[in-house]
Amino acid sequence: MNLSIVKANTTYTEAIADICAAGWKQTVAGKLSDEYQKKNVDFWYNHEKVYHDINAGLYSHVALVDSQVAGVIGGAMTGPNAGEIFVLYVDETYRYNGIGRRLLEAFTEQQIESGATEQWVSVQEGNQHGIPFYEARGFVYQKEKNTVTDTGERQVSLRYSRQLS
Q1: How far is it, in rounded angstroms, from Cα 23 to Cα 89?
Q2: How far does CA 157 lie from the centroid of its chain?
Q3: Contact in structure between 126 and 31 (CB atoms under 8 Å)
Q4: How far apart are CA 154 and CA 10, in angstroms?
Q5: Would strands 82-90 and 154-163 be described as parallel, antiparallel, or unpaired?
Q6: Does an H or E element contain 70, and which?
Q7: How many angstroms separate the CA atoms of 147 and 89, rounded?
Q8: How does pLDDT run across 40-73, given as a tens digit for each residue?
Q9: Dist. CA 109–CA 32, nearest whole Å
């Protein structure tokens, strides 16, 4: 497996949208309705929005396996010293090969260069891919965040953070 981590650019728009849509739907399967899933994917992961978000720097790195996009990470600085991970998804075909770890390392380095001393992430309650991944990398549970979707459903996110050196 020939793996490389590169900066995201708009040539990867379709692959980023597809990987994020599939990954997000997997994290909420059985928790949120098909109706809400479709609305959310149509809003966040349509090609026009993803293209714009790549140009805005919200998707920072992609993992390429033999030139195929296998994963993506993105986020932003949300305070003078606080970085946030908005998305980290790996195509299920390539999971458990160190791709998520490599994406997180590249993104964390970028956030440290931007002044981050702490890093935050929200993980869907019950996400048994995300929770162990982040905990193994030093993220500590901070609080539960409850929101009501526009379809009237309760969505529960778990907020985690870690200190960066």
Answers
A1: 6
A2: 13
A3: yes
A4: 34
A5: unpaired
A6: strand 68-77
A7: 22
A8: 999 999 999 999 999 999 999 999 999 999 999 9
A9: 34
